[in-house]
Write a structure and sequence with these properties.
about 190 residues; mainly alpha; Tetracycline Repressor, domain 2; about 70% helix
Length: about 190
């Protein structure tokens, strides 16, 4: 296994543990989860801080969600495609929030230089959003002729709605189907 492959394997094993335990996760626990010896971690990472920074970088990468959105069948109705994409994005944001939130809560991200180097810069964030927006726009393509706006604008609007999804009480929370329905059909009930 190449050092790059080993690094990716260790990060993949570490991300869920970092999300759960924050900086308190031990390299021993990460090694067990990855099925390797603890010393192997330090062959590809200088120290635990570098590994934690790499976990943050992995959690915020858009590759996973772009791939999920890209795998949605365009043969499904538009409402289903948008619902599936919204769920994929929610899972991505939850994963990102779990990793960053757990590290922040354990004090790891405050003033940590290695994590700052790994954390995405504004250009990286803009590129991530561009990739996600393009994947979303592809979901609108089959209906292009019947859309009121170009797919790119609709994708940006839909993402904006998802990013500001209202956080209401446990019983009043909006579900994905409600958000998609209001986005596609508007807020006003049609006369019967």
């Amino acid at each position: 296994m190449s050092p790059e492959e080993r690094r990716a394997m260790i990060i993949a094993a570490a991300v869920p543990l970092v999300a759960e335990f924050g900086a308190a996760v031990t390299t021993s626990r990460i090694a067990r989860a990855a099925g390797i010896g603890e010393a192997t971690i330090f062959r590809v990472f200088a120290d635990k801080d570098e590994l934690l920074g790499a976990c943050v970088a992995e959690a915020v990468r858009p590759d996973h969600v772009v791939r999920e959105i890209g795998s949605i069948s365009i043969d499904e109705p538009l409402a289903q495609r948008l619902g599936d994409a919204a769920d994929a994005l929610a899972a991505h944001l939850e994963r990102m929030g779990a990793v960053v939130g757990s590290l922040h809560a354990s004090g790891q991200l405050r003033g940590q230089r290695d994590a700052d180097r790994e954390r995405p810069k504004s250009d990286d964030r803009a590129e991530s959003m561009r990739q996600i927006r393009e994947a979303m726009a592809d979901l609108f393509e089959p209906e292009r002729e019947s859309l009121r706006l170009p797919p790119e604008k609709l994708a940006a609007m839909f993402l904006g709605l998802l990013f500001v999804r209202p956080r209401m009480g446990e019983h009043d929370a909006l579900d994905t189907a409600e958000i998609v329905d209001v986005f596609l059909r508007g807020a006003i009930e049609e006369a019967k």
